[in-house]
Amino acid sequence: MPFPNEHAARQADPKQFSSFRRKPMKGEKGISIILGLKDGKSEIQSLRFDRKQWTPRSAKKWLRDHSFKTAGFEPAGEESPVDKWQKTISIEKIDQEQQLVFGWLYVCKTQDGDKVVDHSGETIAIDELEKATYNFALKSRQAGQMHERIGIGRLVEVCVFTPEKREAMRIPEGIVPDGAWVGFKIDDPEAWEGVKSGRFKMFSLGGKAIRRELEDQG
Questions:
Q1: In the chain, where does DSSP find H-type helix?
Q2: How distant is the alpha carbon of residue 151 from its chain centre?
Q3: How far apart, in Å, are the Cα atoms of 56 and each of 12, 61, 76?
Q4: What CA–CA distance (Å, rounded) separates 69 from 19?
Q5: Residue 218: CB partners within 8 Å, gap ≥ 6?
Q6: pLDDT tens for each residue of 69-116
Q7: Beta-carbon count within 10 A of 147 CB
Q8: How far apart are CA 133 and CA 141, in angstroms?
Q9: Cβ contacts of residue 142 below 8 Å, gap of 6+?
Q10: Rg of the chain (C-alpha set)
């Protein structure tokens, strides 16, 4: 699926990585690097070009001029005010017999109250995460693999921890973060083998959001 606001130039198959990190390319406006991470090593998985600053033609020319691949180039989709965001969180528990995995889907603030900035350089307010998580539980409930194969598993557990809920449950401050905890039953044999082998080590949250630039609070 094309990204709504940026062109993508794939450099490596995303299936070979366990997680991803995004960062701006130094000295270039409107270009971001997607790094694929695995076994403590990283390499460029994809390059992204802001559609407001780059046309498909100018992006392809830049790629050729800088000796990057162009075969996997995908122009941006329809113009949209929303951007895709994602956050990777480690899988915390595996039930081998029932093919269940559990962990934090997304953490907004740590148990110490520190705001978490995700790999896309973004943050999500806990009330917005709460609405998005409930919407997912009501309308989808499906697990995906690397944001490409949808339907490899089903949601079995979800709880969004907010300050109000922690107070109601009498959980002391400093114990549980603001975030969404989930559990999935993995039905797909190939995906389950990836979980057991450690190839799939993290949850990845995908969705759409209105992006707002926030001033640095110091």
A1: 56-65, 126-139, 163-168, 189-197
A2: 17
A3: 19, 9, 8
A4: 21
A5: none
A6: 877 899 987 543 333 334 445 555 566 778 888 888 889 888 888 888
A7: 14
A8: 10
A9: 150, 151, 153, 154, 155
A10: 19
> Domain ranges in the chain?
6-74, 82-210
Task: Give the span between the Cα atoms of 129 and 117, in whole angstroms.
Answer: 14
Tokens of 55: 């046309």
Q: Output the 3-class SS for 151-176.
A: EEEEEEEEEEECHHHHHHCCCCCCCC
pLDDT in tens, 158-204: 999 999 999 999 998 889 999 999 999 988 888 888 888 878 777 77
SS3 22: strand
How high is the pLDDT of residue 86? 41
Residue matched to tokens 């790629």: 63
| Cβ burial 201-211 (10 Å sphere, 16+ → b, else e) | bebbbebeeee
CB 157 within 8 A of CB 141: no
